[in-house]
């Protein structure tokens, strides 16, 4: 069994993945349900929402993405082809209506909810990415400007008040992961009161 620290240490970004399953769809959905159940949200708002696209739905999403002007302008269409070749994609949203409602219920914390929502979404993204990798999938996290138009959201039955934060395409790893540079902890971690 992989420990938490091993999962964090061994997680790597994979751009090249295939459409082969490494676990059953049932196991995949169990893992993602576990993730959304236990990742915390501020004041239990549950503003984070996931949309999981598998098979043809996944391929259609990335086909649509390749037609997006922002994507072609940013010269990332080659990456889109890699994403489309995978098994599925997890889309991470933040429910802006839930955040607005929480602000009304907690007016003294009004100024914090938007950033807390982003923090919670980031925790969910990292947890899902690690969980998929522990199951044997390769994945990589992206923050493309997709599903910004209402008509695009309607195609996937996404409420207009859900804001897309990230995409996590995944599949069976094909080739080596992208190398990451490990930073010396002393450069980013300061400790006072150690003695």
UniProtKB/TrEMBL annotation:
Residues 11-172 form the Nitroreductase domain. Gene3D superfamilies: NADH Oxidase. It comes from the Bacteria. PANTHER family: FATTY ACID REPRESSION MUTANT PROTEIN 2-RELATED. This is Nitroreductase family protein. It comes from Shouchella miscanthi. The lineage of its organism: Bacteria, Bacillati, Bacillota, Bacilli, Bacillales.
């Amino acid at each position: 069994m992989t420990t938490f620290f091993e999962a964090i240490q061994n997680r790597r970004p994979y751009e090249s993945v295939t459409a082969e399953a490494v676990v059953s769809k049932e196991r995949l959905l169990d893992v993602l349900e576990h993730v959304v159940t236990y990742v915390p949200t501020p004041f239990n708002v549950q503003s984070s929402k996931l949309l999981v696209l598998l098979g043809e739905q996944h391929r259609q999403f990335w086909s649509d993405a390749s037609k997006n002007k922002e994507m072609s302008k940013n010269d990332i269409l080659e990456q889109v082809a890699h994403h489309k070749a995978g098994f599925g994609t997890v889309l991470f949203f933040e429910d802006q209506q839930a955040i607005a409602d929480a602000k009304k219920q907690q007016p003294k914390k009004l100024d914090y909810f938007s950033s807390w929502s982003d923090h919670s979404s980031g925790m969910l993204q990292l947890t899902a990415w690690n969980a998929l990798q522990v199951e044997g999938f390769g994945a990589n996290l992206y923050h493309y400007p997709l599903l910004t138009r209402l008509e695009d959201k309607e195609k996937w039955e996404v409420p207009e008040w859900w804001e897309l934060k990230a995409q996590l395409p995944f599949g069976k790893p094909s080739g080596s992961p992208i190398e990451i540079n490990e930073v010396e902890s002393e450069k980013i971690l300061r400790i006072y009161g150690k003695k």
